[in-house]
Amino acid sequence: MVVTGKNGTGKTNLLANLVLDPRAPYYENISFSYIPPEKIPSTRVFLLKRSTLIIFEDVCLAPEHIQNRIGQFFGNERHQNISCVYVTQKYHKLIDAVGIIFTVTARAVTP
Which residue segments constitute the domains of the chain, with CATH numbers given? Predict the structure, then answer.
């Protein structure tokens, strides 16, 4: 999943509401850990029997070696029971970083 938008548009709040809403039918009691971009591990370190959600936030301008490490999560994650979210302000940089090959456009619904 990719969440993109200008500064101050509520990207992080949207994601927090999706993940942390205890009324949601998919809600699970989860714990969070912060991993600095320089210490992103291989996809192989995550347990298959446990679902993992990884949120990459504000790493669009990280060096190429870090982007390459992030890219592995978008190519191999389903085999390791990993779901990924990339939060960014720069969509055009994202295409270079993780090799997005499709675009989904959502339109606002006016009541």
Answer: 2-98 (3.40.50.300)
